[in-house]
Amino acid sequence: MKTVIVGFIFPLIFLSLRNRNRNRRHKRQGVYVDVGGEPGFTVRNARFESLVTSAWDGVTTLAELLEHSCKNYGDQIFLGSRELIARENEVAPDGKSFEKLHLGGYKWLTFRDAFEAVVCFSNGLAELGHSRHERAAIFADTRAEWLLALQGCFRRNVTVVTIYASLGEEALCHSLNETEVTTLICGSKELKTLAKVRGQLECVKRVICLDEDIPSDTSSALHGWRVLSFAEVRALGGRVMVEADLPLPADVAVIMYTSGSTGMPKGVMMTHANMVATISAVMRIVPNVGRNDIYLAYLPMAHVLELVAEHIVVAVGGAIGYGSPLTLTDSSNKIKKGTKGDATVLLPTLLAAVPAIIDRVRYGVLKQVDTKGGLSKKLFNLAYERRLQALNGSWFGAWGLEAFLWNLFVFRKIRKVLGGHIRLMLSGGAPLSADAQRFINICFSAGIGQGYGLTETCAGGAFSDFDDSSVGHVGPPVPSSYIKLIDWPEGGYSINDSPMPRGEIVIGGTNVTLGYFKNEEKTRESYKVDERGVRWFYTGDIGRFHADGCLEIIDRKKDIVKLQHGEYVSLGKVEAALIGSSYVDNVMLHADPFHSYCVALVVASHEALEKWASKQGITYSDISELCKKEEAMKEVYASLLKEAKNSRLEKFEIPAKIKLLCNPWTPESGLVTAALKIKRESIRKTFDNELKELYSS
Fold first, then answer.
1. What gap in Å lies between CA 673 and CA 675, rounded to an integer?
2. What pLDDT shows up at residue 13?
3. CA distance 165 to 30
4. 53 - beta bridge partners?
5. N or C: which end of the chain has fewer CB within 10 A?
6. Which pLDDT belongs to residue 263?
7. Domain AMP-dependent synthetase/ligase: where (predicted)?
């Protein structure tokens, strides 16, 4: 078979194919616009002269959006959840026990079923005595009931506080007490956390568990609170008729607590109008998304990226199938061997991801290719290089029939990792590397849009076109936003810089939120309303505009540290370069103003480092011992120097010393956020001794 493939494909490489450069050829995607407020260089989306507020007549809130879609798409499938067949414990050779799940197919609710559940849950809230003046909170993993509970609250005009399921106990209590939450909606897993902090919560009166089985031990520990299941509240509401109390566009829909990389989380107040504006704007620029699409939901719904993405699918009448990062693929950690992951069962067409997830998929594929070796590896490398040439506009690249055959014989199996039907992917939450973007374009034959936004802007900011195969930018402003660059003299950035204007990114428009809950000082510092009534958010990120109006993120004010001799080091920029090493699972650069050099904490990639050690004949008892070996340290450091050279880092930007760590940084450890961004201050405190040792040695 392989001989046939080679004999059939290789002659095609020498055919004269038309050069079909898919890059945008400098098409104007963003144009300069005159706005009010602080002087700067401002760009709007070239396709829209005015800011988008809503894509539909009569739809100005999230409650109206759901009702509109449920009326239009009634009997179509809408929300899908996998059946849990069994939980099993698997014991590894080292004696550690791991939970494995045996999951069945998806069971679906139609739009009509979902709307009925929302109405009943809303009625049930009223029967329990929860008034519109009280706040509810959702503290749970992503699932269908999360969305149903959210929308049920909206029909009572109840503001919902969203909290990451992985948030620490201190931050959890802070968030619930600050917002004076009286009704807490959570999963059975989160009930155990609540039982530990029961005495620290001041206002909670009732708890609604999204699972039907409420553990008796946690229920008794929550003495004094009324504890019911989601099904019980829904049944309670099904026996009564309560008139809906729908919100207005200016009402606060969500107070979203970030899992912030520094200090206590801040609650961002998002109105219904803010959310509808972002959803409408993204819908206008995402191509051909509709009722035939299936979206795989697994990111935290307490993250604005996931919340917006799911409501876009709601708006177009698509289907949402729920999964989790630990059950996403057939080889995911919690999937029982021999059974199928979420993507294989669901066969999604749409997927949102943060760069860390995309990098994991990419690394897994490349590892499989490397393991197979031989002709398979050579074919993959050849196919990848040919498709890469084509994407880069080379006349010699693989187009037409040749591209079709590479996809058929080489990349088809890779696409099956995510079900085989992905056509559009959205990346957000952090910058996506050029290599990762190309990997998705080539191996999955899918368009990938890279977005830039913040919780404070309801995820709205900039968004690249899915058919734009150029790399290194996040596209033009979304139609609900203006993006302005203002001078930052301290960092050496100016809108008059050549060849591109550079400066701090300020986002204005209909998606910019009200500010931080009970934090007027921080709100005044970060938000401003200009003389024309446009609300602006000062992001602290540094960007530059390309000639076609696309934005590139190049720095961050908070990440810049001045070294002893006056050089400025951008921590995030250097980390983005160093993480390209195959030996690196995660990295944090540390710069001290009292020293002339940087150091780095490097979380080792176990598989890559162990594979290298095996080839070198190095013996060790476990990964912890391997990370302490001088040979391993030298090998990893050499790979970092190579990545630094490839990224053209200055000598003072490259860490002079590193500490190799064996334990991964996870949201549960409190060292990264739920979106897998490093929590710099938490890491600094946790590894304070290691950092001091690096500077003293």
1. 5
2. 44
3. 38
4. none
5. N
6. 63
7. 103-517
> Cα 320 from chain centroid?
17
In this predicted structure, what is the pLDDT of residue 23?
Answer: 42
Please count the residues of the chain. Answer: 697
CA distances to 88, 118, 138, 291, 409 from 82, in Å? 17, 20, 21, 21, 31
Label residues 255-287 b or e (16+ Cβ within 10 Å = b): bbbbbbbeeebbbbbbbbbbbbbbbbbbbebbe
Q: Mention every residue, 6+ apart, whose C-beta is less than 8 A from residue 92.
A: 98
pLDDT for the residue 1: 45
Low-confidence residues of the chain: pLDDT under 70:
1-26, 92-95, 259-263, 394-399
- Whichever domain contains 624, its CATH number is 3.30.300.30
pLDDT at position 397 = 62
Peptide bond into 355 cis (omega under 30): no
Model pLDDT, residue 16? 33
Tokens 């990451």, located at residue: 164
User: Residue 224 domain-assigned?
Assistant: no
Q: State CA 23 to chain mean position distance.
A: 26
What is the C-alpha separation between 418 and 345, in angstroms, rounded? 10
Whole-angstrom distance, CA of residue 201 vs CA of residue 194: 9
3-state secondary structure (DSSP) of residue 231: helix
Phi, psi of 496, deg, nearest 5: -100, 5
Name the residue range of residue 650's domain. 563-696
Q: Identify the H or E element spanning 284.
A: helix 272-285
Report the pLDDT value the prediction gives residue 467, as an integer from 0 to 100: 77
Q: Identify the pLDDT of residue 9.
A: 45
Longest Cα–Cα distance of the chain, Å, equals: 77
Domain count, the chain: 1
Residue 665 lies in a domain: yes
Q: How far is CA 65 from CA 294, 317, 331, 480, 599, in A?
A: 19, 11, 37, 17, 50
